[in-house]
Amino acid sequence: MPFIPATATAPVLAEVVRSGFVEGRHRGSLVLLDADGAVELALGDVSVPVFPRSSNKPMQAAGVLRAGLDLSGERLALAAASHSGESFHRDLVQKMLDEHGLSEALLQCPPDLPLDAHERETYLASGAVRSRVTMNCSGKHTAMLAACALRDWPLETYLAAEHPLQQLVHRVVEEAAGERVAAVGTDGCGAPLMAISLTGLARAYRTFVLADPGSAERRVADAMRAHPEYVAGTRRHDTWLMREVPGTLSKMGAEAVQAVALPDGRALAFKVEDGGGRALGPVLGRALRLAGVDAEVVGRIAAAPLMGGGREVGEVRAAF
Description:
Layout: E1 12-18, E2 21-33, E3 39-43, E4 49-50, H1 57-66, H2 73-79, H3 87-99, H4 117-125, H5 138-151, H6 164-177, E5 183-186, E6 192-197, H7 198-210, H8 216-226, H9 228-231, H10 237-244, E7 249-253, E8 257-261, E9 267-272, H11 280-290, H12 296-302, E10 305-308, E11 311-318
Antiparallel strand pairs: 1-2, 1-11, 2-3, 2-9, 4-6, 5-6, 7-8, 8-9, 10-11
Helix pairs in contact: 1-5, 1-6, 1-8, 2-5, 2-8, 3-5, 6-7, 7-8, 11-12
């Protein structure tokens, strides 16, 4: 039987306001943990499992390190990335493939265009076409293949849930989240996807920033925080936040999922129920302020103007 989540109505996390009129609402659930790891605020049911989507990538990157792959710096950040498909992302993915004797043909993520809209226009104008290297998960897939090649694990089935690498990732997720994986699905890139609660997701990010130096978890967190542009891109919230609030670990996921941990152990995670990405920035901005983050970048992250006739006529705003 498939897992069926609770059907209780989730609270409104964001409102869509046009010309002073509320024309839409985004519901969801959100959890804040204090520095000791206790739940400080819970909106909605934060104990039911969700698919964290790409917010699981730090755990997947830790899995390839535990498999023995020696990555660091920009390469490790890219292994945990949902990159924008900018030229420096594509170049490093190709370089990593070459370094490990791999080819693009071995990647099992689907061919795609750059995730970033501005980069996509430039990319298409140059005459380029969809490719697996350009797909936002290509860094993760390259790292997974490299780990499998190192361990002499099958390359053809590296995305199978029963593959040794994916079983290792499964264990990392459970250890970091402090709970059992409730369900295993298939992510948009084809990789196995482990369902945990929002509380477990926030706890996992807290685990990574507080992990012992040199551990797989801490190495991933440190690489992401040192090279945030490789985790996301030059025009992305995760990059801005990690660059401008030192020590912060941040990673979004598809379907409007977000997880963040601050260096002192405070952490948050949320999911917008309808997957509305336009609500992600306003909800994240409000959650950061509730977590005590007072930085200019929070306002930029929260800004989500609505346009009408080429001018600003409203906004998507947090409602909690």
